[in-house]
Design goal:
The protein is mostly helical. The protein has ten helices and no strands. The longest helix is centred in the first third of the chain and has 25 residues.
C-alpha cells in the first residue's frame, strides 16, 4: 500500500468515526444502525464494514480514539500549569470549553451513560467519569501535600467537582439557549477557589 493510499484510508476511517459519534450522540448507540452512520458519512453501507466489523467495534473505537483523546488532551494541557490548584480550576474550565466547542461529544457521553444500561458492562475499560475522578482525586492529594488546601476527603471533593461538571454538561445540552455555561463555569471556579464563607 502506497503512503498516499494509506493516508487516504486513515482519513476515511477517521471521518467515519467522526460521523458515527455524531449519530450515536443524536440517537444513542442502541437505536443507531450502520445504515444511519453510512448515510451521515455519505458513503455506501458496505464501506463502513471495510473499516469496522460491527457497530459495537465502531462504538468502542469512537470512545477510545475520539473521546479518550479529548480527555487526555485536557489532562495534558493542565499538567503544564505549575500550581496544583490552578491546574484544578483550569481542568474544570477546559472541560466546559470542550462541551461548548464539541457538543456532540458531551451529548454522546450523556446519552450513553444514562440511556444504555449495558454501557459500562460492555466497555469496562472505558469510563470517562472515573478517569476524571481519579485525576481530580490525584490533584487534590497533591494540593493537600503542598499545603494549598486543608486536609479533606479527596474522594468527596473529586465527586463534587466531577458531579458538577457532568450535571452542568447535561443541563447545557438541554437548555443551551438560556444557560450561559461559561458564566456558570466562572462562578463555580470562584466557589472552588474562595469557598462559601461570608467575606
Amino acid at each position: 500500500m502506497t503512503q498516499a493510499r494509506a493516508a487516504t484510508r486513515k482519513n476515511k476511517r477517521e471521518m467515519i468515526l467522526q460521523k458515527a459519534i455524531e449519530v450515536f450522540a443524536e440517537k444513542g448507540s442502541q437505536q443507531t444502525t450502520i445504515a444511519d452512520i453510512a448515510r451521515k458519512a455519505r458513503i455506501a453501507q458496505g464501506t463502513v464494514y471495510v473499516y469496522f466489523n460491527s457497530k459495537e467495534e465502531l462504538l468502542n473505537e469512537c470512545m477510545q480514539q475520539i473521546i479518550g483523546i479529548e480527555i487526555q488532551h485536557i489532562i495534558d494541557e493542565v499538567e503544564q500549569i505549575p500550581d496544583t490548584m490552578d491546574r484544578l480550576y483550569s481542568f474544570f474550565v477546559l472541560h466546559i470549553n470542550l462541551v461548548k466547542e464539541k457538543p456532540y461529544i458531551a451529548r454522546f457521553l450523556t446519552m450513553e451513560a444514562r440511556q444504555n444500561d449495558d454501557f459500562y458492562t460492555l466497555y469496562p475499560d472505558f469510563n470517562p467519569l472515573k478517569r476524571y475522578l481519579d485525576y481530580v482525586k490525584d490533584l487534590t492529594q497533591k494540593a493537600i501535600a503542598e499545603g494549598r488546601i486543608r486536609d479533606l476527603d479527596e474522594q468527596a471533593l473529586a465527586f463534587l467537582i466531577v458531579g458538577v461538571m457532568d450535571f452542568a454538561m447535561a443541563q447545557w445540552l438541554v437548555y443551551q439557549d438560556t444557560l450561559d455555561i461559561s458564566k456558570m463555569a466562572a462562578s463555580i471556579r470562584d466557589i472552588l477557589k474562595y469557598g462559601v464563607n461570608e467575606k
